[in-house]
Amino acid sequence: MEIHTLINWYKTNVEKKVSGRYLNFSSIVDLINLYSGEYNVQIIGHSVNNQPIHKIVLGNGPKKILMWSQMHGNESTTTKAVFDLLKFLSIKSDFSKNILSDSTICIVPMLNPDGATAYTRVNANNIDLNRDAQNLSQPESKILRKLFNEFGPDFCFNLHDQRTIFSAGKNKKPATVSFLSPAQDKDRSVTLNRKKSMEIISVMNDMLQLLIPGQVGRYDDGFNINCVGDTFQSLGVPTILFESGHYHNDYSREKTREYVFYSLVKSITYICKNEIRGENFENYFNIPENEKLFYDIIYRNFPLIINGEEKKSDIGILFKEILQNCKVNFIPFIENCGNLEDFFGHKEFSGNDIDYFPTDINTFKTHYLAKI
């Protein structure tokens, strides 16, 4: 499908039943019930706090794709994109018919419902599920591994969010979407499994460069066998990590969600139409590695008194995401003061343009942070 056709569809058909940053199980249960009449929807287990975990299986083709979202409960962007994908494929068209005859797609839309409820990375036992792939100490980890073994995927999509600090390389552009073909050994060997993942990522990147040029990053491939992606890759299944990042003024991540949706459609289409041999993987390495070069806000050349000396300083501010009354609020805090000329702000202000100059950092906090 041509990208302009997909964009036009999305403008009027985005799944409006899910939006914003805070998604818990109650946010998606109606959609799960909606698709239970059309697809194979089953409860495959329960979380620590006994919330149900579902799988949604669609299609009956030979190429099997397994994807899961909200392994980290506070990473909801890809969950929204997954439901956009389900809505798109539920429309009766030649395109969806071909996809569903060529592939079988198994989706776990919310692996960590307890973490989603609390808006935390970890589960109810304070365990990061993405560091539990070997120990399998948590019920949610066991559920995913059992599904992996039973479904027998040809490809895995590990769907996540990343922080606003990431840039796409050393450029003043955020890593709106990042990808990774995880390592499967400590030497980060470029194995056949990795090449297959890299080939698919390269295709998604080519598409995204038309839409958000320079805003695609490559996530660090340091090996950790305790991570799910590294484990599944080491078990012989090409695995792709998706990381949803920041887009300008998009803290609700609705634009990022859109680009993840396009990426999902593109990758699934490519898998269905091609025999993935890992032959066209080289362009993966042209994607710039993620760098941690962004603050949410930078005040440049701001006059402060630091250690009794008056000097101009840059002030780097980040937001903490705090759940309050079922809404995520972005609370600013000072992360760094000093020379930040090698860093970027999603918003920047010049001290030269501000009439009131605080005399110390505490006055700055009182006068400025309260107004952000």
UniProtKB/TrEMBL annotation:
GO terms for biological process: proteolysis. InterPro entries: Peptidase_M14. Residues 22-258 form the Peptidase M14 domain. One of its GO terms (molecular function) is zinc ion binding. It comes from the Bacteria. It holds the Pfam family Peptidase_M14. This is M14 family metallopeptidase. It comes from Abyssalbus ytuae.
